[in-house]
């Protein structure tokens, strides 16, 4: 289970960290209260703030870090049943985890839907609009097209239901970089069998790690990158991890993904 904390080392602010989190840096969005940016009612009145955020998070602006590549390594080794992420930055995909192995519980910019006729489009079709600060419109009915990001009160994607079979099957659960404050995602932490070790890698204790610990819970507190790298070292996978990251960097260098900017990452300026 992953959250915004796995992407802060890539330069994307999380939501709730005091000071640096998105919810405490909303001046530029001109919205009445933080959650308005993900509320349908507000979106229909004023979609601009959401598209300002969309412009920043649209696939191509950021690169994965060790936390994403750790998931990729687990996947390559056939050890990863399925990553459940709350993140909408798409960095699990960029790290090479196939979309059909992933659950992007809060949606994705990879696809978009017309809010009027409900037609579905590839997110790429609207890149020009989003980057040019234009509200994307449906080519068929001219309704506003909304990227398939889950807003508050909206249903989670169908794939989220995979948790019903995945979680009882898991024999280890990683919880990385999330405050576990948003339901129904947060409750998944309680859906693994009680004999299953749960490993939290996060700055602070969250959710059941703070208030309903199990005897076999483990917490590695601190930075996610440091935590993941420590674990990779203990597993004896350091070399493999370095090779993987190097290989992925070279791919970008060879220009296999022309939308990606050159390293280093540009950083966000939220306020
Ligand atoms: P939060 O911002 O609520 O929590 C991020 C967690 O990661 C916090 O516990 C941070 O302390 C921790 N963290 C951040 N950077 C870290 C780092 N470098 N190392 C270690 N820990 C770090 O983000 P989420 O839990 O993902 O909804 O938030 C859940 C949902 O709330 C989001 O998906 C979003 C928002 O409303 C939508 O986008 C629809
Ligand atoms: Zn339409």
Automatic annotation (TrEMBL):
NAD(+) binds at residues 4-8, 14-16, 86-89, 178-179, 202-204. CDD domains: SIRT1. GO terms for biological process: positive regulation of ceramide biosynthetic process; positive regulation of mitochondrial transcription; positive regulation of oxidative phosphorylation; tricarboxylic acid cycle. It catalyses: N(6)-acetyl-L-lysyl-[protein] + NAD(+) + H2O = 2''-O-acetyl-ADP-D-ribose + nicotinamide + L-lysyl-[protein]. One of its GO terms (molecular function) is NAD+ binding. Residues 248-271 are annotated as: Disordered. Residues 1-238 form the Deacetylase sirtuin-type domain. PROSITE patterns: SIRTUIN. Pfam families: SIR2. InterPro entries: DHS-like_NAD/FAD-binding_dom (IPR029035), NAD-dep_sirtuin_deacylases (IPR050134), Sirtuin (IPR003000), Sirtuin_cat_small_dom_sf (IPR026591), Sirtuin_class_I (IPR017328), Ssirtuin_cat_dom (IPR026590). SUPFAM superfamilies: DHS-like NAD/FAD-binding domain. One of its GO terms (cellular component) is protein-containing complex. The active site is at 106 (proton acceptor). Its cofactor is Zn(2+). It is an enzyme of class 2 (transferase). The keyword DNA repair does not apply. Coiled coil: none annotated. Its EC number is 2.3.1.286. Belongs to the sirtuin family. Class I subfamily. This is NAD-dependent protein deacetylase. It comes from Taeniopygia guttata. The gene is SIRT3.
